[in-house]
Automatic annotation (TrEMBL):
Belongs to the GHMP kinase family. GalK subfamily. Keywords: ATP-binding, Kinase, Nucleotide-binding, Transferase. GO terms for cellular component: cytosol. It comes from the Eukaryota. This is Galactokinase-like. GO terms for biological process: galactose metabolic process. GO terms for molecular function: ATP binding; galactokinase activity. The keyword Kinase applies. Residues 112-163 form the GHMP kinase N-terminal domain. Residues 19-65 form the Galactokinase N-terminal domain.
Length: 175
């Protein structure tokens, strides 16, 4: 693969918007994105209070979506287009509440990364629909899960018109 083969952010965004319109029959209103990364030194020590030297890559995860209409306000629907993700690629789950928090599920495993961000988001969450498109390869040591989590958190901030969390707070939530 050469650099010319890597999809640009604009191309990923266009793919996500097209898939969203195809699946949900509407236009997404917001987007969030985050790059993949590689740790030049300190692999797996960042979450153990060790030093790392990460470098962002020109590979990205993009999340696009919109709030659900009032009649669907208690449901979250998320689709990933990643061929390497386990099935099902379209998931639906209720908006978490104090009495009914989100819980991980065995299948699909990819959705647990997204659910974790929703569960730990710093503000109230409403029902929405979203599509995830990524050029970060899964399982390649390029932090595809971190890219998904940070893109999802950034998406939620924009979607819910929530004040941006500090970079530290966002990183800790996505950890």
């Amino acid at each position: 693969m050469s650099v010319a083969d890597i999809a640009t952010v604009d191309e990923l965004l266009a793919q996500a918007k097209t898939k969203y319109a195809e699946v949900f029959k509407e236009t997404p209103t917001v987007a969030g994105l985050a790059p993949g990364r590689v740790n030049i030194i300190g692999e797996h020590t960042d979450y153990n209070d060790g030093f790392v030297f990460p470098m962002a890559l020109p590979l990205y995860t993009v999340v696009v979506g919109a709030l659900s209409p009032d009649g669907e306000g208690n449901t979250i629907r998320v689709l990933t287009t990643n061929e390497g993700a386990d099935a099902p690629r379209l998931v639906e789950f209720p908006v978490p509440t104090t009495d009914a928090p989100l819980k991980p599920s065995k299948e699909p495993a990819w959705a647990n990364y997204f659910k974790g961000v929703v569960a730990k988001f710093h503000g109230p969450v409403r029902g929405f629909k979203a599509v995830i498109v990524s050029s970060v390869p899964l399982g390649g040591g390029l932090s595809s899960s971190a890219s998904l989590e940070v893109a999802s958190y950034t998406f939620l901030e924009a979607l819910l018109n929530s004040p941006a969390a500090s970079p530290r707070a966002k990183a800790l939530c996505c950890q």
